[in-house]
Structure formats: structure tokens, C-alpha cells
Amino acid sequence: MSIKFRLILMSFLQFFVWGAWLITVANYWFGTKQWEGDKFGDVFATLGYSSIIMPALTGIIADKWMNAEKLYGILHILGGLFLACIPMAGSPVAFFGIIFGAMLCYMPTISLSNSIAYTILKNNNYDVIKVFPPIRVWGTVGFIAAMWLTNLTGNKASGNMFYISAAAAVILGLYSFSLPKCPPQKLISENATLSQKLGLDAFRLFKTPKIAMFFIFSMFLGAALQLTNMYGDVFLSEFARVPKYAESFVVKYSTIIMSISQISETLFILAIPFFLKRFGIKQVMAISMFAWFLRFGLFAYGNPEEGLWMIIVSCIVYGMAFDFFNISGSLFIETSTDPKIRSSAQGLFMMITNGFGAVLGSKVSGWMIQRFYTSADGVRDWHGIWVVFAIYAFIVAILFILFFRHKHNPQEVATVAH
User: Which of 107, 155, 207, 234 has minimal CB crowding within 10 Å?
Assistant: First the structure.
């Protein structure tokens, strides 16, 4: 089995685990359980809290003490056990606690999977810029496969989706022990400072103005990353409240419609090497931010009939919005940090975006939607919700262009391949 195929399988299962429930959990919460809407933001906040606590910590462990592929496997097995317990939760508090445990295990595996792939590819003399995106695209295929499986089997609002996710997590955990070894770098000398020994040097990146500014905007954009994952599927499903749309394809197969977003990802991931080398990190990040503006704006005016094209275009734009930010950001960190702290730096990037950013986005959006855009009988004003999100993304994009200083250097980007 070739190295690239083994990494493809890892990437596929990594995001299959997430795709089995992430997009449809709102239907489970609002539809099956009929729990309070203002508490739903706490569910996605667990992704944020976990990303604040765990990725940097596990990055330090992988940099200093344990093989990354072994740590990766242990986390997936433990996460699978938590996922299998989620359907047993009988209250929002219990649900929150169990899913928090699952996310403590899962979220750090995203950055660890990047570090593992980069290490294995470099050890086998592959050009990471060219080879990694086509491998990573299979993660998106895995996410799509999981979404289709839950929708077509009638489980998009069922606890069974968590069992599907749990099984995939355990399989991936066991599989990871067969991957090529990714031992700790152990490049720190005995005379190193306490900060160096603990792997805290990654936080010194904030002393570099360019990287500090990058992290600040990563946090603000991170607040937008999960909004359509949180509310997109339930937004489409709630068109069933309108008689003329109740029997539409969009309502019946909302998860499949949402999967267009992930299908789009597969195309834009492959375009990243061209855009990154041609335009550089600042332009690529700016394109991502304006794409988020379009994503939300098109949702605001779309509907299952005459406005269906807006929903579809919004889903297509999502690929650019999501990939250009996440993959390009990860590659930027890879080119801007010392090999001694590379896993820690990737963990820090995850902590900023999917940690502080996700908590900010999920908590504020949950409160805002319940306070200003939900009527007494539980009907949500989705037009107003998406318009506010679009305005937010537009403001962040303009500020990024004005304040993030980075001159494109093609040679700098090329160094990640070596």
C-alpha cells in the first residue's frame, strides 16, 4: 500500500467521523429532542473549548514525548467511546458534557493529522505543496460520504448518526498505529529554558507582528467558520413551515443540498497550490473572507424554488471560503515557524481559529438568534440572521486588507515542500 494511499485513507476517515453528525446535529437538537434554542450554541462551543485546551497541548506532546501517530490513534479511540454514549444523554446538560468529552479527543486530531501527513511526506521526499492538497481532498470526500449516509438512511435527526461516527473513529484509531512512525523531534538541548522544554515557544510567535496579526484575524474569521455548520441544515429544513416549500427536494434532502458545500471543497482544495503561489497568503485569505460574505448573503435571499440558485451558489462558494482559510493558513504556519515547534504552532493555529474563534461565534450567534431573531412560538427569521452574518464577514475582510501587512514571496511558500 503506497504512502499516499495510506494518508488518503487517514484523511477520509478523519472527516467521516465529523461529517456523520456535525451538519445534522441541529436537527437532532431542535427536532428530535426539542430542547431550548439558546442552549444550542453551547454544543458548538465545545468545539471551541476543546480547541483552546487540547491542540496546543497535544502538539507539545507530539513535539517532545510521543509519536504523533500513536497519540492520534489513542485520541480517536477515546473519542469514539464518547460519541457512542451521546444518544444516551437525556438532557441538554448531559448532552453537553458527553459531546465535550468527544470534542476534547477529536479537535486536536485535526492539527495532528496535518503534522503527521507533512512529516511522512517530507520523510519520503514528496513536494508537500503539490501532494498534500490532493490527499486532504479525500477528507472532504469522507465528510460528504458521511452526510449522504445519514440523510439517505433516515438518520439526519437520529441518535444513530453518533454510532456511525463512533465506529469510524475507533476504526481510524486502530488504523493509525499502522502508519509510518512520526517520532518527537527532540531538538531541544538539556540547557534549554523551561519555556522551551514545555513547548511553550510557539506562543512567542505573537511577538512577530505579522504572525500576531494573522492570529487575530484568524480568530475573527474563525467565529464565522462553524455558523453554517451550526444552522445551515436546520435553516433548509425549516422551509417546511412554509406550505409551498414543505414537500420540496430541499426540505426532504437538506443534508444532501448542504453537501454541495463539501463537494465544492474538493475542487477548491486542488486550486490552492495555484492561488497560494500566484497571489500569496494575504490575497488568498482576503478572497476567503469575501467568499464568506457571499456565502451568508446568498443564504439570506435564497429559497427552495425561485431562489434555489442562490442556495446552490452559496454552497459552491463555501468551498472557497472554507478551504482558502484553513488549508492556506495551515501552510502559512508551516512556512513561518521553526521545525522544533511546528506541531505546537499548528496546534496554536487550531486553538485560535476553532478555539477562541468558535466559542466567540457559537456563543454570540446562539444568544443573538434567540434574543433578536426568534419569535415567541419558536419561528426563526433566517433572512435577518444571514444578513447580520454577511455584514460581519464583510467588515472583517475590509479590516484584514487594511491592517494585515504581508508581501507575497513565492520562494517563501515554496520552502514548505522541503
Answer: 207
Number of Cβ atoms within 10 Å of the Cβ of 417: 17
What is the predicted pLDDT for the residue at 86? Answer: 92
Please give the Cα distance from 366 to 378 (Å, whole number). Answer: 14
342/348 Cα distance (integer angstroms): 10
Cβ 150 vs Cβ 156: under 8 Å: yes
Inter-residue contact 261 to 140 (CB < 8 Å)? no
Residue 195: predicted pLDDT = 58
Contact of 202 with 135, CB cutoff 8 Å: no
DSSP character at residue 374? B
Across the 418 residues of the chain, what is the mean pLDDT of every consecutive 10-residue run?
Answer: 88 93 84 75 81 70 75 93 92 90 89 83 79 83 90 85 94 92 63 55 71 85 80 86 86 87 82 79 85 94 90 92 80 71 71 82 84 82 92 92 70 47
Task: Return phi, psi of residue 178, to 5°.
Answer: -95, -5
Q: Are 86 and 102 in contact (CB under 8 A)?
A: yes
- Identity of the amino acid at 366: G
| Whole-number Cα distances in Å, 203 to 190, 262, 295, 310 | 21, 32, 33, 42
Q: Is residue 223 within 8 Å of 360, Cβ to Cβ? A: yes
- Exposure class string for 348-366: b at 16+ Cβ within 10 A, else e: bbbbbbbbbbbbbbbbebb
In the chain the domains, ranked by start, together with CATH numbers, are: 7-180+203-417 (1.20.1250.20)
What pLDDT score does 186 carry? Answer: 58
Closest by CA to 204, choosing from 345, 352, 375, 354, is 345
pTM over 0.85: no
